[in-house]
Amino acid sequence: MADNRRWWALVVIALAQLMVVLDMTIVNIALPSAQADLNMSDGNRQWVITAYTLAFGGLLLLGGRIADLAGRRTTFMIGLLGFAAASALGGAATGQGMLFGARALQGVFAALLAPSALSLLATTFTEPKERAKAFGVFGAIVGAGAAIGLLAGGLLTQYLDWRWCLYVNVPIALVAFAGAWAILAPGGRHPDAHLDVPGALLGSAGMLSLVYGFSEASSRSWGDARVVTLLVAGVVLLAAFAVWQTRARVPLLPMSVIRDRQRVGAFLTVLFVTVGMFGVFLFLTYYLQGVLGWSPLKTGLAYLPMTAAMIVGSTQIAARLLGRVPPRVLIVPGLLTAAGGLSIIAQVGVEPAYVSHVLPGMLMLGLGMSTAMMTSISLATGSVAPRDSGAASATFNTAQQVGGSIGTALLNTIAASVTAHYLTAHAGPGVDRRLLQAEATVHGFNVATWWAFGALLLAALIAGVVVNAERAPTPQGAGERTPEPVDTLG
Predict the structure, then answer these.
(1) Residue 125 and residue 133: Cα distance in Å, rounded?
(2) What is the reported pTM?
């Protein structure tokens, strides 16, 4: 592909990935308005988020293998059209069931789109210097997408209507589709790629059960029979999936993908980073709106400095140094910087503390996290055989999605439990209940944020121990079908 076409291809791929990532958060700010408009109960409103994450997280591995089987460009374009149609259906929802179904459909097509986008990027940019720049842009999109979604959700909800948080995907998807049709090269199918039906059923069912279990834990409890059953079933199904993958003729997840030490380090790092990050975004949003009383728009604007820091970390730090220093030299300091930002945010009180705590914490968080994430993306997709690039990309996205689901459920449960205990311990005659509620809420957020801090430290430890490459790997050429070199664990 000519140089100019490659960079235009990056624009198309990044635009599609931005749409998928920001859709995880753009609906959060719109949720109160949607709940009131469609008469949703407090118990049912979570399905606006859960329906999307369930389908997305549960079907990613299957979507990655379909990309290898049908061709990355074809799967990418089908994913774009399907995502646009599902978004339009959700925006036109006349009841909660219609909205839940549309969000699930969005997740299905996102599971086709996301691994196709990442594998297209990995096979389009193979020259180390260009690859570092391309992954810098892509890393900034992945890192900043959640914050951009909160800003866009605030703008659209406040000045238009909550439905536009879904409608906005339609023009974005159509522009990306036109770009893909004109710019991306056809092909990418591999004749030896086959759909592993038993693996697809076991893997998808296991992921769905696991993600559903963690999602239910946030509204129930970790000891609830349904939650325990779902989590145990998920573990059993995924164990069966792992055993089957060692026996399948053409496995859904080739062992070579997860036998590579650098990729395993990247997958685990991303898993624990997103465990810590997704819940913190939610806490900050509730802190700014619920405790400080900020509007949706002002809350969205408050995230802009973090978005800017993410762009700097990805394009000016990681992209410039990726080919010059060992990857863990970027990942570990990046995660420690992000953890330092969380330690500052974890000390906020009921008094306004945006300038003194939230802003510096956000800047450190954005700078560190984007540097680590961009490097991890490069590790996760480097040196993978072209026929397996969809599976490797899907595994990376799965680590993100599962980490986000676990983090949201775990940290929300911790925050709610701590808040309830604080209220019980400090209630009494003469106590200002409104102030007590605010103090209890903030205390719950603070404790949960310290847990997120611990998740980032664990991610840094894993990266420091497991990732030992001298330089970030580069992928095999898109047209090659040579055996993949394996760096075995241990």
Answers:
(1) 9
(2) 0.76
3-state secondary structure the chain: CCHHHHHHHHHHHHHHHHHHHHCCCHHHHHHHHHHHHHCCCCCCCCHHHHHHHHHHHHHHHHHHHHHHHHCHHHHHHHHHHHHHHHHHHHHCCCCHHHHHHHHHHHHHHHHHHHHHHHHHHHHHCCCHHHHHHHHHHHHHHHHHHHHHHHHHHHHHHHHCCCCHHHHCHHHHHHHHHHHHHHHCCCCCCCCCCCCCHHHHHHHHHHHHHHHHHHHHHCCCCCCCHHHHHHHHHHHHHHHHHHHHHCCCCCCCCCHHHHHCHHHHHHHHHHHHHHHHHHHHHHHHHHHHHHHCCCCHHHHHHHCHHHHHHHHHHHHHHHHHHCCCCCHHHHHHHHHHHHHHHHHHHCCCCCCCCHHHHHHHHHHHHHHHHHHHHHHHHHHHHCCCCHHHHHHHHHHHHHHHHHHHHHHHHHHHHHHHHHHHHHHHHHCCCCCCHHHHHHHHHHHHHHHHHHHHHHHHHHHHHHHHHHCCCCCCCCCCCCCCCCCCCCCCCC
Lowest mean pLDDT among 41-55, 149-163, 273-287: 41-55
* Contact of 328 with 320, CB cutoff 8 Å: no
pLDDT the model gives residue 145: 67
Q: pLDDT, tens digit, for every residue of 181-203? A: 888 766 555 555 567 778 878 88
> 290 near 488, Cβ under 8 Å?
no
Q: Of 417 and 3, which is predicted with more confidence?
A: 417
Give residue-wise pLDDT tens across range 355-374. Answer: 999 999 999 998 998 888 88
Q: Where are the extended beta strands (E) located within 332-478?
A: none
Q: Which amino acid is at 481?
A: R
pLDDT tens digits for range 308-356: 888 888 878 887 887 788 888 899 999 999 999 999 999 998 888 889 9
What distance in Å separates the CA atoms of residue 467 and residue 469, rounded to the nearest whole number? 6
**Cα(205)–Cα(362) distance, integer angstroms:** 37
Q: Is the pLDDT of residue 105 over 60?
A: yes
DSSP annotation string for 235-253 = HHHHHHHHHHHTT-SS-SS
Note the residue count of the chain.
Answer: 490
- What's residue 488's pLDDT? 33
What per-residue confidence (pLDDT) applies to 190? 57
Mean of pLDDT over the chain = 80
CA dihedral angle for residue 307, residue 211, residue 446, residue 372, rounded to 10 degrees? -40
Decide: residue 224, CB within 10 A, 0-12 exposed, 13-18 middle, 19+ buried. middle
